[in-house]
Amino acid sequence: MPDAYLYHGRGLDSPAVRHVAITPSNGSDLPERPRVIYCLAAGNAVLRDEAGIELTYALHQGQILPLSPVRVLASGTTATLCGWI
Length: 85
Description:
By secondary structure, this protein is mostly beta strands. It has one domain. It contains no helices and seven strands. It has strands at 19-21, 36-41, 43-48, 54-59, 64-65, 71-73, 80-84. The strands form two sheets. The protein has a four-stranded antiparallel β-sheet, with no helix packed on it. The protein has a three-stranded antiparallel β-sheet with strand order 4-3-6, with no helix packed on it. It is globular. The relative contact order is 0.34.
């Protein structure tokens, strides 16, 4: 299928073009920072931002969290997540 927007610039307000599974890790940052986090299965998500601050979010299935975290920690994360890039 042709991409009608192939020659248009993509900005932060543009829709994502890929989705990636997120594997929580205490020792590694995400290989690529997503635009947002999407919750596939409800639970807690412990996220680290670029300032190194970690917060726990209680997420519902289907919830979109408009945050681009550096890391999703394994300790405390019970939700199943994917990222939209």
